[in-house]
Amino acid sequence: MNAKTLLASVFFIAGAGLAQAADPIGVATNIANVPFEFQDGNGVLMGFEVDILRLVGEKLGRPVEFQEMPFQSLFAAVQSSRSDVAIGSITITPKRLESVAFTQPLFDADQCLTVGSKSGIEGVEGMGGKTLAVITGTTGEIWATDNEGKLKFASVSRYDSNQDPMMDIATGRIDGFVHDCPIDAYYIKDKPQFKIVATIPTNEQFGLMLPKNSPLLEDINKVLTELKESGKMAELHEKWFGMAPAKDSSTVKVLPIPAAN
Hints:
This protein is α/β, with parallel strands linked by helices. About 35% of the residues lie in helices and about 25% in strands.
């Protein structure tokens, strides 16, 4: 091989490396999930987890491409590796860790029961004989299934997005909605027709979901650690939730990557 050919080969290899480094990170996204991920009136995607992924992309030198889909589709997108990451306030559970991977936790949450302000329902016991809404594939659906016999709901209606159950509460089609507390509290803060009447402790923690054995897991997790240690994660929490995170919360505390049992 002469010097000219060798030089060309070096440039080709270097160029290929640069192209690979710039490959986009595909992010499966449930966008009807205020304030974690949603579109504003102009169709611009924004939110707590959206900001986190954009910072991850900046730190890793890779563009981020968001792909909209219903919550329950996030799992198939990641398991098939059609998407590199999924966001949607996804709870880390031992069952899910059997088929996917998660970064360290970045948000703590419980479930809440939201009803109409004039419904007369004051707690989960008041849902007996009533229609309950949940989002398919969520912790709220698991809770409803586990408690359906005990609380004797008239029925459980399953939805793909967060806004439709709220609209159906307003019109009287359903009576209550069990879902993530921070999301529903954010949604109803300026809507007096709704109220949260019960907090259901579940000690959930949200993380970014990736395919099992993803080569990106360690890199992305390292960025999350940097965001926590620099205070940037706390800033994002205050930006989107209007308050600083608790000092011992997973939003600021560096934690290990969850391991499957």
